[in-house]
Amino acid sequence: MIGILTFIFLIFSVFFVRWFAKWCTEFVPEGPAKRYSFWGVIAACMFILLGDEVIGGIQFGYLCYAGPGLEVLVDDLEGRKVKGTSSMTEIKLSPIKINETKIVMKDVGTGEPVFEYSLYDAEGGWLTHWINFNGSSESFLYSDGCYRDLGINELILKNNMAKEK
Over the chain (165 residues), what is each successive 10-residue block's mean pLDDT? Predict the structure, then answer.
């Protein structure tokens, strides 16, 4: 089904480009109007790319702000020896590509989860991914990571915990 939709979009694009080229050459008079319409199309394309980055940055900023912080899963933290395990998943509910890395710190002796937290990485706006501009899918206007100060090191030091590598 996606191939049929892509083919229909391609046919539509060819007819639209043909119509637009004909309109620019026949109906727009020579002189400043033709120059202004040419530069207007160039500016519109740039604004679309810029808007894509800005909207992607805003969406990612909301996710970082509202995302889960540090969650302590046990009552007694004192003197534990912990080791971290991580898993990465892609968040599907967003038009931009966002990866969530969930880190769970487990007690080495019992294997019991002690605390967990999440980190987020974004890779530009959806249009940047779709056209793969300049061979890169990284964002150009905002930081691609969300690494809030969650107080993990303070929690480990305060409770005399040891972190195993």
Answer: 70 82 76 79 77 74 74 82 87 73 88 86 64 55 64 82 82
> Residue 14: inside a domain, yes or no?
no
- The three-state secondary structure class of 148 is coil
Per the CB < 8 A criterion, the answer to whether 59 and 96 are in contact is yes
For residue 115, the enclosing domain spans: 64-164
User: How many domains would you assign to the chain?
Assistant: 1
Q: Encoding tokens for residue 64? A: 């970082």
Residue 71 lies in a domain: yes
Token pair 């889960």 is found at 68
Per-residue DSSP letter, 102 = E
Is 24 in contact with 39 (CB distance < 8 Å)? Answer: no
